[in-house]
Fold this protein.
Amino acid sequence: MSINATFFAQLVVFFLLVVFTMKFIWPPIANALDERAQKIADGLAAADKAKVELSSANKRVEDELSRSRTETAGRLADAERRALTIIEEAKAKAADEGNKIVAAAKVEAEQQAVKARESLREQVAALAVKGAEQILRKEVNAGVHADLLSRLKTEL
């Protein structure tokens, strides 16, 4: 064989191989590459979408935390105000009760003073009667002289 025939035969085999490859082998490989590229593109799009959703979720969480903190601070302020109000009311009630107790004690002291004066008057009257009895050396009838004794009590 000559070199031209060998060369020509190799050229024909090469073209047959190229045609066979282009017709039967290349399309499945190209489809597989296209599918793989599409899957990668879909995965990247999903990752971008997830990143956006994550940032949105983080923002919502941060907003909710901020709202919760504000609400908690408001509730704490309300509780403190109510506590101060309750303390002030308790102080006012305690002051009123203290004033009532002092007033009652004053009334009771006045009543005891009046009782003590009455008792003292009775004792002085009894002493005066005894003194007069001893001076007169005769017995004085308390029933007969009750009016005299009552006038003496009022004068004392």
The chain has two helices and no strands. The helical segments are 3-136, 146-155. The chain has a mean pLDDT of 87. The two ends are 172 Å apart (CA to CA).
